[in-house]
């Protein structure tokens, strides 16, 4: 007997997390896309006029910003599409794929910055600080305003786009500081030094995003969910003898799902088992799990006592036996 609940019934929908349009509607992403294109134009011109690698590397970063925000904009529109027979969970994972691609592009651009900075350490080049100030100042204002407007989202795809914006704002601030140092000291090597710091900042943030998206794409247990706590919460419900074949995964950022088999303590009517399931759903919502699928069994149903479903051939056979 399979008991399937969608987001733990209608009356619990206010618990649903990670709905894309709440934190960053597509309209905001569209505006961010065109503002970022303006920043790119300003920084490319400023970088060429000043000869600053820090500014040009920041312009390279802005180019990935445009791709990131464009992908996020696309993902937001995809997430609004309803589920269908081919995509039963809808299109929310489009955002996870976009976030992963964003992270990879950031890591690649960071490597390029490091290579170019190494070349400039060998042969420092003259830099014109005035154009650094103008271009970086414009980039700082625009990126900071966009990043702070969309900051605080629990959606991984939006967070990756915000990371681009705030990272670029920090890079622009560093370029301005570097320009001041060059004016006061004439120490042109500060320009590639800043580029290295920008690259490390970008790479660190990108790796964190990539790691989270990989866990989601591999159907791993969400980072904010402790499997032992989940199993204990299910066992603590009155009438539940044990739980096994327990799986928790993420459909998209903030949208966690669970499936499991529960053995009931003694004979139960359908009404009694539904009461148990509703109580389990309620407790799991407080553990940030909204989409729950439960198979109900009695204590005599043959199964392994392990909470996790075995990955071996014998485990698969056991799983089919349950079905």
UniProtKB/TrEMBL annotation:
<dbReference type="GO" id="GO:0005886">
    <property type="term" value="C:plasma membrane"/>
</dbReference>
<dbReference type="InterPro" id="IPR027469">
    <property type="entry name" value="Cation_efflux_TMD_sf"/>
</dbReference>
<dbReference type="InterPro" id="IPR058533">
    <property type="entry name" value="Cation_efflux_TM"/>
</dbReference>
<dbReference type="InterPro" id="IPR050681">
    <property type="entry name" value="CDF/SLC30A"/>
</dbReference>
<feature type="transmembrane region" description="Helical">
    <location>
        <begin position="193"/>
        <end position="210"/>
    </location>
</feature>
<dbReference type="InterPro" id="IPR002524">
    <property type="entry name" value="Cation_efflux"/>
</dbReference>
<feature type="transmembrane region" description="Helical">
    <location>
        <begin position="59"/>
        <end position="76"/>
    </location>
</feature>
<keyword id="KW-0472">Membrane</keyword>
<protein>
    <submittedName>
        <fullName>Cadmium, cobalt and zinc/H(+)-K(+) antiporter</fullName>
    </submittedName>
</protein>
<feature type="domain" description="Cation efflux protein cytoplasmic">
    <location>
        <begin position="224"/>
        <end position="298"/>
    </location>
</feature>
<dbReference type="GO" id="GO:0005385">
    <property type="term" value="F:zinc ion transmembrane transporter activity"/>
</dbReference>
<keyword id="KW-0406">Ion transport</keyword>
<dbReference type="InterPro" id="IPR027470">
    <property type="entry name" value="Cation_efflux_CTD"/>
</dbReference>
<keyword id="KW-0813">Transport</keyword>
<keyword id="KW-1133">Transmembrane helix</keyword>
<feature type="transmembrane region" description="Helical">
    <location>
        <begin position="130"/>
        <end position="150"/>
    </location>
</feature>
<feature type="transmembrane region" description="Helical">
    <location>
        <begin position="96"/>
        <end position="115"/>
    </location>
</feature>
<feature type="domain" description="Cation efflux protein transmembrane">
    <location>
        <begin position="32"/>
        <end position="218"/>
    </location>
</feature>
<feature type="transmembrane region" description="Helical">
    <location>
        <begin position="32"/>
        <end position="53"/>
    </location>
</feature>
<dbReference type="Pfam" id="PF01545">
    <property type="entry name" value="Cation_efflux"/>
</dbReference>
<comment type="similarity">
    <text>Belongs to the cation diffusion facilitator (CDF) transporter (TC 2.A.4) family. SLC30A subfamily.</text>
</comment>
<keyword id="KW-0812">Transmembrane</keyword>
<dbReference type="InterPro" id="IPR036837">
    <property type="entry name" value="Cation_efflux_CTD_sf"/>
</dbReference>
<feature type="transmembrane region" description="Helical">
    <location>
        <begin position="162"/>
        <end position="187"/>
    </location>
</feature>
<dbReference type="Pfam" id="PF16916">
    <property type="entry name" value="ZT_dimer"/>
</dbReference>
